[in-house]
Amino acid sequence: xxxxxxxxxxxxxxxxxxxxxxxxxxxxxxxxxxxxxxxxxxxxxxxxxxxxxxxxxxxxxxxxxxxxxxxxxxxxxxxxxxxxxxxxxxxxxxxxxxxxxxxxxxxxxxxxxxxxxxxxxxxxxxxxxxxxxxxxxxxxxxxxxxxxxxxxxxxxxxxxxxxxxxxxxxxxxxxxxxxxxxxxxxxxxxxxxxxxxxxxxxxxxxxxxxxxxxxxxxxxxxxxxxxxxxxxxxxxxxxxxxxxxxxxxxxxxxxxxxxxxxxxxxxxxxxxxxxxxxxxxxxxxxxxxxxxxxxxxxxxxxxxxxxxxxxxxxxxxxxxxxxxxxxxxxx
Amino acid sequence: xxxxxxxxxxxxxxxxxxxxxxxxxxxxxxxxxxxxxxxxxxxxxxxxxxxxxxxxxxxxxxxxxxxxxxxxxxxxxxxxxxxxxxxxxxxxxxxxxxxxxxxxxxxxxxxxxxxxxxxxxxxxxxxxxxxxxxxxxxxxxxxxxxxxxxxxxxxxxxxxxxxxxxxxxxxxxxxxxxxxxxxxxxxxxxxxxxxxxxxxxxxxxxxxxxxxxxxxxxxxxxxxxxxxxxxxxxxxxxxxxxxxxxxxxxxxxxxxxxxxxxxxxxxxxxxxxxxxxxxxxxxxxxxx
Lengths: 331, 288
Prior knowledge:
A: alpha+beta, Ubiquitin-like (UB roll), Fumarate Reductase Iron-sulfur Protein, Chain B, domain 2, five-stranded mixed sheet, globular, B: alpha/beta, four-stranded parallel sheet, 13 helices, 8 strands
């Protein structure tokens, strides 16, 4: 098999002034995972190379790291799939302080998880005789999210965490989902109110890095989207994020298109004067360049069809309590 | 026979990014690509409109797909957000036939239309590369962008999630660079090219949003780029219209890829609406 250069990040906190890359050459054997390669390098070339590993079977989540700039599990990835111009570059997970080489300090991750009380909180006044039962359909709601192995790959590549460490982060929001959607949990409303606050579910940009890097079926972005839907259906709509979503829907229903003049004001809140003043500068800049959206709203052709679809869902919701769309008039 | 597409403009190209629509129409006209604008198609919802009930936006989008099917054409998108939302909606509908049947039941009863699951969603860049061909594009160039160093910015929905990406290697795509090189520009590689521009949270957390776009702009600037090139009008808005609030000294022009193609095809900057950008591109264009 071909000879590959492993370019590996080396750094020890408290000892090294700055990080460096060290190169190791290794002939790949057929079927080698990235973790196999690291073990061989450590055993035959450099016993000082530090990385985490345990199960080697994509269950424990220990060996998450970045290869060629993207987070993955070393034990689950064929090394040959990573070779680019004869090189594989390895870095520690992003968005964490480095302890040594590919080992990071995961404490910010655990601290964030603790903020959403990641344990079942059933109604203790209603203690069942035996266990709390779920139907297959009820379990299906949390089937995917319970596959999370807490490897922190999503956290590593989250674009929001790069700029704001206060953001709860994808794994934490997925964990919140896991209990919000668990029919045995009694604290759903409280949990939803917690994550609808600033730095929570509305601060995600949908960039998709978390789901792309997730090695399980947890797919945090999909869970974040489901949680936002649940938060809004629970009537927790007093936030710019929820108002933004409602404004979008109102605009779609009235015009069939987005009204860019209405949406910022609706998102900020009609009586939020500082918020509305905050969006003025960009509006003025755009007006001066003749770039501002036209004052008169644009209606799509056959907008009646779109309105009828919205009306139908509105009626469905009224008739069977929740299966149809919530509209602005419901809040 | 000329290439023909059902042209889904998206809302921003009709509003705050009208220069994108203008430049797309001019470029396609010059290349002989026939566009049939879907003036009856509704907003895709941008992944936001369906946040309190995804079935509503899936039904609205299924209507758009049905409209394209009625025209017998693939859909051409010029906004990667619209494209990503459309592809996600299609995937949800394709995955669960029972769900698609329920969506179609509403669609049929309220509009008389049915989505058959055949409409294809294509982004402008993919059409240019796969259907039109870069050799053919190169042959049409009358004004190569010789000295211009362009930094391609892909936009999240064009590369993530991977299963919905139009590009062959979404973790390291080269499609935008190939287009730019075909029109004679030089391209620069820079760390921010696949990052998020932050636009989706501009109303929720402006500080984070602008820190994200600022980081992309600085990354391109440090790599020696003369301009950033987008394929999504939302990325364009966050990096151009908000740039003075990020850092007024950055002065990094942000242009739509269609505008650069238009320049190479012989249109003037003004015809392509480049005079409407907040950060002037005239300095960067002087190098052409």
